[in-house]
Design a protein that fits this description.
Layout lengths: L22 E6 L7 E7 L6 E7 L5 E4 L4 E3 L14 E7 L4 E6 L5 E5 L4 E5 L15 E6 L5 E5 L5 E7 L2 E8 L2 E2 L18 E4 L5 E4 L4 E6 L4 E7 L11 E4 L5 E4 L7 E3 L6 E3 L7 E7 L16 E4 L2 E2 L3 E7 L5 E9 L4 E9 L3 E7 L6 E8 L5 E9 L2
Length: about 400
């Protein structure tokens, strides 16, 4: 997204009042090996754990997308929804879903954080072999285009997981190779590039944080990884196993070995420890935010929203429940290049509005919905994905 576009989106970045509702972690037991314990919400400001959403001991209800029925899983295998070796997680805010993959498995699981129901996507595209650590999926994130992306240890397989309605499909995008400038800091070498996690930015690039603390920028179109540097300000033996962007646009990292969570400036790669005293074992992190995204700031008003954010029925709902909002509002839709592709006027009566807005001639892709009040002040910015 070009730097000079969207001047109306230059809102003041503030504390994320919904931090524990859209920042998630795969947490492990207090052991030296990887043993999955639970999915939990995290506070991305303090680094303190919130609600435990689903654990290794929770009774799992798993629905197979392919077989279209409830399935019974072999809990003695590495390939089930509560496997001990979890290390890849992404958050899909359009349906409040946690998308994840066990390391020794090609299966994809989608956990609805509200209902606790799990969808099994039996994936035949990934080439995961239990005895080959290169093939294990350890990095996952939601891209700015709304798709989920997953990457194996060696970068030899970048998967795109797409949803249309309730159905998921998987595509293999290819092999990620080292940029010629990387030198000894190879993206494909176990000492410098393996493990860790990845995040996405607003231009649909990816940043891979290796377990060693090295950071690589991956251009999705070119499938090349460029070494950016090593994170400073973390302990020498700190293993970076989780990364996700917070509401301020900073990257939060966490370790499977246990330890403080750190906030990292993506420009300087300087880290500072979050103030919470917890030292959880974190195998992966996920959030709804993106690096370099000017729409990730907190909305000006808490009681105005649009939904759904993944639009597959050609309309969104606009809901206002705030007496401070009066008169006429303007809803504008921008594509990712900054072009205004649609406008509609809305009328609020006595601080209340619940209206459907239909989209016409919008092709599939990412858009920004902006709502301004009578004075022209932006009171909401939100990204949506049109899928039909």
């Amino acid at each position: 997204m070009k730097k000079h576009l969207f001047p109306l989106f230059l809102l003041v970045l503030g504390a994320n009042v919904q931090a524990q509702q859209d920042f998630f972690a795969i947490a492990g037991k207090d052991t030296s090996s990887i043993v999955f314990n639970d999915f939990r919400a995290m506070d991305a400001v303090s680094g303190v754990s919130g609600e435990k959403l689903f654990s290794a001991d929770t009774a799992a209800k798993v629905f197979s997308q392919d077989r279209k029925n409830i399935v019974s899983e072999d809990k003695n295998s590495y390939s089930h929804s509560q496997a001990v070796t979890m290390a890849a997680l992404a958050y899909d805010p359009s349906n409040n879903d946690l998308v994840y993959m066990p390391m020794f498995s090609s299966n994809i699981y989608v956990l609805n954080a509200k209902t606790k129901e799990i969808t099994l996507v039996e994936n035949t595209v990934a080439k995961v072999t239990s005895c080959d650590i290169n093939s294990h999926i350890t990095r996952m994130t939601t891209g700015y285009d709304g798709h989920i992306y997953a990457l194996n240890n060696a970068g030899t397989q970048l998967l795109q997981i797409s949803r249309k309605g309730s159905q998921y499909t998987v595509s293999d995008l290819g092999i990620i190779k080292d940029d010629t400038s990387n030198g000894k800091n190879s993206f494909t070498a176990i000492e410098t590039g393996f493990g860790g996690d990845m995040i996405a930015d607003a231009e649909n690039n990816f940043y891979v944080f290796s377990a060693s603390g090295n950071v690589f920028k991956v251009a999705a179109k070119e499938l090349k990884a460029k070494f950016l540097g090593r994170i400073s300000g973390i302990p020498e033996n700190y293993s970076v196993n989780g990364s996700a962007v917070n509401a301020k646009g900073k990257v939060i990292i966490a370790s499977a070995k246990g330890g403080a969570l750190y906030e990292v400036d993506l420009l300087t790669l300087q880290a500072r420890a979050l103030p919470g005293g917890e030292k959880p074992h974190i195998y992966d992190l996920a959030s709804r935010y993106f690096a370099n995204d000017r729409t990730s700031s907190v909305n000006a008003l808490a009681n105005i929203d649009i939904y759904p954010t993944r639009v597959d029925e050609h309309f969104i709902n606009v809901n206002v429940n705030d007496k401070a909002v009066k008169g006429n509002l303007k809803l504008s839709v921008f594509d990712i290049s900054g072009k205004n592709v649609m406008e509609q006027n809305l009328s609020v009566k006595e601080g209340s509005l619940n209206q459907q807005v239909y989209f016409k001639n919008l092709i599939n892709g990412a858009y920004i919905v902006s709502i301004t009040d009578q004075s022209g002040k932006v009171i909401l910015n939100k990204k949506i994905i049109v899928t039909e």
